[in-house]
């Protein structure tokens, strides 16, 4: 766990890595902020600001040991598991002799440095990338696409604004926003394949995928007119009126009109809705078969417990769906349903700044000061058992508490 603390008389903020017993593992250098983590959360990257002379980035493991140092200020990581091969890259930013930003790409060992064009790494390359997504860097008006070894695939004008994927979660089309005039808001969307073949130019400032009657289309919006256009994946414009006519022809007839907001279907086909004061269960035909006190319902576990909340009483109610019986009244509002050996209901009473743990029958297991922030379940590691779990709460005064989560 990493927190930001202040040094005594210096009033300087530092970041500190703690274990789950509250012991300090390492205090990072004052000017080296924590910038990011790898996907597994087991490597911590710190770096000095880009504006400092010769900035560098440092990778630490979760025991606080320095692993490797990179030149430049940390920008992002790229991690992908594909065809049984795990590929990892680290990106840093630095200033060249002309004071222009440039991107450096390393492997996780700090070797094989490659300089890439552009001043930033696109989040589309690093945030849960599709399986065959290339690395994309950007300048103010141009994008550059590289393979994992730093070889340029192609470059184009504009900045990447969306990636359209097929049903196998593979990148199918890349959408770049291109400014065609410095004065008039007359942007275009240029579509490319990942190999660099241009597919089409579309009118609009943003592009997204919409599904109409089971078919996917690309939707763009023109500004300032707010006109919406539809295109197929070949870049051909589609007439919305023809789609609406087809939609009406295929639209099913209404079976029933239900009171309240829809929550979800149960396994046996019942429909749950809720209003500001009550929760309603309907059968598959839409007929109301049960009403429960409380709103904001949540289904819990395979036994299909139902938890609702009363805004007036500041309490939650635990029901059994099959029998419709109320099993218990719980203090506070349901925050989390834990999924360890036992399924626990974690509630928070904000008026008292206290959190409670209940079992599935509504019996109190424990209570703790503060509001529930999250639960943490550790994987087997040296010094921790396979089932080590912790509850983290935060008080209204800003204090953070860590509790062993006993199943």
Total E-strand runs: 38
Q: Assess the beta-strand content as a share of residues.
A: over 45%
Radius of gyration, in angstroms, nearest whole number:
27 Å
Structural class: mainly beta
Helix content: under 10%
Oligomer: single chain
Distance between the termini: 22 Å
Known CATH architecture of the largest domain = 7 Propeller
Looking at CATH, the homologous superfamily of the largest domain is: YVTN repeat-like/Quinoprotein amine dehydrogenase
Tally of DSSP helical segments? 2
Biggest sheet: strand arrangement: 4-5-6-7
What summary fits the major beta sheet?
A: 4 strands, antiparallel
CATH topology of the largest domain: Methylamine Dehydrogenase, Chain H
**How does the overall form come out from the CA principal axes?**
flat
Question: For the residues shown, what is the average pLDDT?
Answer: 79
What's the number of structural domains? 3
What are the segments in which pLDDT stays under 50 over at least 5 consecutive residues? none
How do the helices and strands line up, and which of them pair or pack?
Elements: E1 2-6, E2 13-18, E3 24-27, E4 33-37, E5 43-47, E6 56-61, E7 66-71, E8 73-82, E9 85-95, E10 101-107, E11 114-116, E12 120-121, H1 123-126, E13 135-138, E14 142-146, E15 152-157, E16 159-165, E17 171-178, E18 188-192, E19 198-203, E20 206-212, E21 215-221, E22 228-231, E23 237-238, H2 240-250, E24 261-265, E25 271-274, E26 278-282, E27 288-293, E28 295-300, E29 305-310, E30 315-320, E31 326-331, E32 333-337, E33 345-349, E34 354-358, E35 364-369, E36 371-377, E37 389-394, E38 400-404
Antiparallel strand pairs: 1-2, 2-3, 4-5, 5-6, 6-7, 8-9, 9-10, 10-11, 12-13, 13-14, 14-15, 16-17, 17-18, 18-19, 20-21, 21-22, 22-23, 24-25, 25-26, 26-27, 28-29, 29-30, 30-31, 32-33, 33-34, 34-35, 36-37, 37-38
């Amino acid at each position: 766990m990493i927190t930001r603390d202040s040094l005594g008389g210096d009033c300087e903020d530092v970041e500190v890595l703690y274990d789950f017993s509250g012991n300090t593992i390492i205090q990072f250098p004052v000017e080296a902020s924590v910038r990011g983590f790898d996907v597994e959360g087991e490597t911590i990257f710190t770096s000095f600001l880009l504006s400092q002379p010769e900035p560098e980035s440092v990778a630490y493991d979760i025991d606080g040991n320095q692993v490797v140092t990179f030149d430049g200020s940390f920008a992002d990581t790229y991690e992908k598991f594909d065809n049984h091969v795990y590929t990892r890259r680290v990106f840093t930013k630095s200033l060249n002799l002309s004071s222009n930003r440039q991107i450096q790409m390393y492997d996780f060992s700090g070797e094989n440095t490659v300089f890439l064009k552009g001043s930033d790494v696109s989040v589309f390359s690093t945030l849960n990338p599709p399986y065959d997504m290339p690395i994309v860097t950007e300048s103010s008006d141009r994008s550059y696409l590289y393979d994992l070894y730093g070889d340029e695939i192609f470059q184009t004008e504009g900045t990447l604004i969306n990636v359209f994927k097929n049903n196998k979660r593979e990148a199918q089309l890349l959408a770049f926003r291109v400014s065609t005039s410095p004065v008039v808001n007359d942007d275009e969307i240029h579509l490319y394949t990942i190999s660099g073949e241009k597919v089409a130019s579309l009118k609009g400032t943003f592009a997204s995928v919409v599904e109409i009657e089971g078919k996917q289309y690309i939707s763009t919006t023109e500004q300032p007119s707010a006109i919406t256009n539809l295109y197929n994946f070949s870049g051909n414009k589609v007439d919305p009126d023809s789609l609406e006519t087809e939609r009406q022809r295929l639209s099913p007839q209404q079976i029933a009109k239900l009171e309240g907001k829809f929550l979800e279907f149960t396994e046996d086909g019942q429909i749950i809705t809720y209003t500001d004061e009550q929760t309603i269960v309907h059968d598959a035909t839409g007929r109301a078969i049960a009403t429960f006190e409380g709103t904001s319902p949540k289904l819990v576990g395979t036994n299909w417990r139902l938890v609702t909340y009363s805004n007036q009483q500041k309490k939650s109610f635990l029901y059994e769906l099959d029998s419709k019986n109320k099993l218990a009244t719980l203090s506070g509002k349901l925050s989390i349903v834990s999924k360890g050996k036992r399924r626990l209901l974690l509630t928070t009473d904000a008026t008292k700044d206290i959190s409670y743990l209940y079992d599935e029958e509504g019996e109190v297991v424990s209570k703790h000061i503060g509001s529930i922030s999250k639960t943490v379940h550790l994987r087997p590691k040296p010094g921790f058992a396979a089932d080590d779990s912790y509850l983290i709460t935060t008080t209204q005064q800003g204090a953070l508490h860590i509790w062993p989560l006993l199943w």
